[in-house]
Specification:
By secondary structure, this protein is α+β, with helices and mostly antiparallel strands. The chain is built from 3 helices and 5 strands.
Length: 120
């Protein structure tokens, strides 16, 4: 199972997304749930870089293999600029919605491939 943890600060802004595990939906290399989750976490990291100017190497650590391990953080300095902060939050909330939607579409009937944790 893939576990995705969303960390929020006191203002309810997403400040980090942490993902690890393997969905086990299908064999490694053909697991569409893992592919979907990987796409979402890479989109988060790359969008924060292209839209907000956050350097991927400073804020992201993504290791792929049998089990994916990923950490994407949004540093506090981003929140000093309202325009950049708003963009970062739109991106992060969109990715949050993507993970919720993915989990809802594949989990069920006693099968859980993605677990979403909200750390407030």
């Amino acid at each position: 199972m893939i576990t995705v943890k969303f960390v929020r600060d006191d203002s309810r802004r997403i400040t980090g997304v942490f993902m690890n595990g393997h969905a086990g939906y299908s064999e490694e290399g053909s697991d569409i749930v893992c592919a979907g989750a990987s796409t979402l976490i890479f989109t988060l990291a790359n969008s924060l870089e292209t839209v907000c100017g956050l350097k991927t190497e400073d804020s992201s650590n993504i290791v792929e293999g049998e089990d994916v391990s990923a950490e994407v953080t949004i540093p506090q300095w981003i929140f000093a600029d309202d325009k950049v902060s708003d963009r970062a939050q739109v991106i992060a909330e969109t990715i949050h919605t993507g993970f919720i939607t993915l989990a809802a579409s594949v989990n069920g009937e006693g099968e859980q491939y993605i677990n979403i944790i909200e750390d407030n």
